[in-house]
From TrEMBL:
Assembly description: Heterotetramer of two alpha and two beta subunits.
Cofactor, free-text remark: Binds 1 Mg(2+) ion per subunit.
Gene (name only): sucC
Enzyme class: ligase
Protein name: Succinate--CoA ligase [ADP-forming] subunit beta
Keywords: ATP-binding, Ligase, Magnesium, Metal-binding, Nucleotide-binding, Tricarboxylic acid cycle
A Pfam family that the UniProt record links to this protein: ATP-grasp_2
Domain ATP-grasp, first and last residues per copy: 9-263
Superkingdom in the source lineage: Bacteria
Function: Succinyl-CoA synthetase functions in the citric acid cycle (TCA), coupling the hydrolysis of succinyl-CoA to the synthesis of either ATP or GTP and thus represents the only step of substrate-level phosphorylation in the TCA. The beta subunit provides nucleotide specificity of the enzyme and binds the substrate succinate, while the binding sites for coenzyme A and phosphate are found in the alpha subunit.
Residues bound to ATP: 50, 57-59, 106, 116
One of the GO biological process terms: tricarboxylic acid cycle
Source organism of this protein record: Daejeonella lutea
PROSITE patterns documented for this protein: ATP_GRASP, SUCCINYL_COA_LIG_3
Length: 398
């Protein structure tokens, strides 16, 4: 689950990570009041107005602006709130900005120069270990750094038996070229950041940039946080941070029915039980000359209600020209799924696209008989090859 920058910073702060202070605002007037408060509490004459959307690269799209006085705060907050912000991560359609973060100016003059770093904590799935990834090239797209100067990206593996050790935090600070008070502060920052990542059951904490201020303080200027959906039952307060307006409406609707759904750009909708089988089904659709319109895993308890919810979600996509239901009957019996398909079809009414149902496993023969004798416009198959041939047939007919 993605969360906004201001929410990520609140989590970091609760674990003792120093952050760029800020106040969220939904209107230009609220932004002005937030700027006044920052002036009083942190003596911040200038503030940064930052769009709050679930995407990076906001500055490139005009979603991050510096305001030098209250008039500029009102003007620039008014420009950003309500805009359709397009960044390299939003796609051409962009995202609607409904709130901004009014953040303190941390690039103040001092005895030493400021310096930006990149630090993230994430899971290396190949090694089954958490890693701290960091670079001296903060403030830039890490993908560009990796492509053009990969030697400037460092990785520190964390042994899950003992967690992040003190010498590792010191090694990171050393590799970033720090010394003195900044070195000490960075080691504390890294330790607190890793604890925040670990204890919140997150899948990623990305801080870009981490700033060394002119008085040698280390703080998070940005925060991109992804919380593990599967662990949210342990963090009800974090679950409340979910902003469904930032998500695809169809995916939100699917989650209400406990369906794992991801919208794609193709013309063949698919409904499958099991993530691995879903991936194989999408390959079959491609081989048959179609393009998958979605990833939809109904899990191991497919029934009439589940199938009906799946139908409604798939049919909400106007690009769908056919639906392939591919169920392996292990936990669930195929004949029960077949009856669920028939019941859901009758309850929904006239479904405007052909449906191919491939059932294999427990009671597959009985399931095929139920489908064939239902009198509905449903094609049945047992082998994947047969299902692929039927996909080709119905697409040619369309």
């Amino acid at each position: 689950m993605n969360i906004h920058e201001y929410q990520g910073k609140a989590i970091l702060k609760s674990f003792g990570v120093r952050v760029q202070e800020g106040i969220v605002a939904s209107t230009a007037e609220e932004a002005v009041e937030a700027a006044k408060k920052l002036k009083t509490e942190y003596n911040s004459d200038w503030v940064v107005v930052k769009a709050q959307i679930h995407a990076g690269g906001r500055g490139k799209g005009g979603g991050v602006k510096l305001a030098k006085n209250l008039d500029e705060v009102k003007e620039k907050a008014g420009q950003i709130i309500g805009m359709q912000l397009i960044t390299p991560q939003t796609g051409p359609e962009g995202k609607l900005v409904s709130k901004v973060l009014i953040a303190q100016d941390v690039y103040y003059p001092g005895e030493s120069e400021t310096k930006e770093f990149y630090v993230s904590v994430l899971l290396d799935r190949a090694k089954g270990r958490n890693i701290v990834m960091y670079s001296t090239e903060g403030g830039m797209d890490i993908e560009e750094v990796a492509e053009h100067t990969p030697h400037l990206i460092f990785k520190e593996e964390v042994d899950p038996k003992v967690g992040l050790q003190g010498f590792q935090a010191r090694k990171i600070a050393f590799n970033l070229g720090l010394s003195g008070d900044a070195f000490k502060d960075m080691t504390k920052f890294i330790a607190a950041l890793y604890r925040a990542y670990d204890e919140t059951d997150s899948s990623m904490f990305e801080i870009n940039p981490v700033l060394k201020t002119s008085d040698n303080k280390i703080l998070a200027v940005d925060a991109k946080v992804n919380l593990d959906d599967n662990a949210l039952f342990r963090h009800k307060d974090y679950e409340a941070m979910r902003d469904t307006s930032e998500e695809d409406p169809t995916e939100v609707e699917a989650s209400k029915s406990n369906l794992n759904y991801v919208k794609l750009d193709g013309n063949v909708g698919c409904m499958v039980n099991g993530a691995g089988l879903a991936m194989a089904t999408m390959d079959i659709i491609k081989l048959a000359g179609g393009e998958p319109a979605n990833f939809l895993d109904v899990g191991g308890t497919a029934n009439a209600e589940t199938v009906k919810a799946g139908f409604n979600i798939i049919l909400s996509d106007p690009n769908v020209k056919a639906i392939l239901i591919n169920i392996f009957g292990g936990i669930v019996r195929c004949d029960r799924v077949a009856q669920g398909v028939i019941d859901a079809y009758k309850e929904i009414g006239n479904i405007p696209v052909p449906i191919i149902v491939r059932l294999q496993g427990t009671n597959a023969v009985e399931a095929k008989k139920l489908i064939d004798e239902s009198g509905l416009k449903v094609y049945s198959a047992i082998l994947l090859k047969e299902a692929a041939a039927l996909v080709t047939k119905v697409l040619e007919e369309k």
